[in-house]
Write a structure and sequence with these properties.
Elements (H helix, E strand, L loop, with lengths): L16 H6 L5 E5 L10 E12 L4 E2 L5 E2 L4 E7 L8
Antiparallel strand pairs: 1-2, 2-5, 3-4
């Protein structure tokens, strides 16, 4: 499984641009985690809450990624694992 060293690789564009274009509200999808992350996870399962849109101002997301004006993002909710089960 490929892991990312740089949070900027998770932004839409490049190889992932076509993928983010086909997401619809309610779709579930997987994003690989940044290698060596604090939670020790390999991936996140997410649900699309808002289709791809262009950001109108610069901001830092709650995870610390810098989002620049003009970047495209997908609003999403992630699932969190509870307990020891699979």
């Amino acid at each position: 499984m490929e892991e990312f060293d740089d949070p900027d690789e998770l932004k839409s564009g490049g190889d992932g641009e076509e993928f983010f274009d086909i997401l619809h509200i309610g779709d579930n999808f997987v994003i690989l985690a940044i290698k060596g992350n604090a939670k020790g996870v390999n991936f996140y399962i997410l649900q699309c809450q808002h289709k791809k849109f262009m950001v109108s101002e610069h901001f830092a997301c709650v995870w610390g990624c810098e989002i620049d004006m003009g970047d495209y993002v997908v609003a999403r909710t992630y699932y969190q694992k509870w307990g020891q089960g699979s």
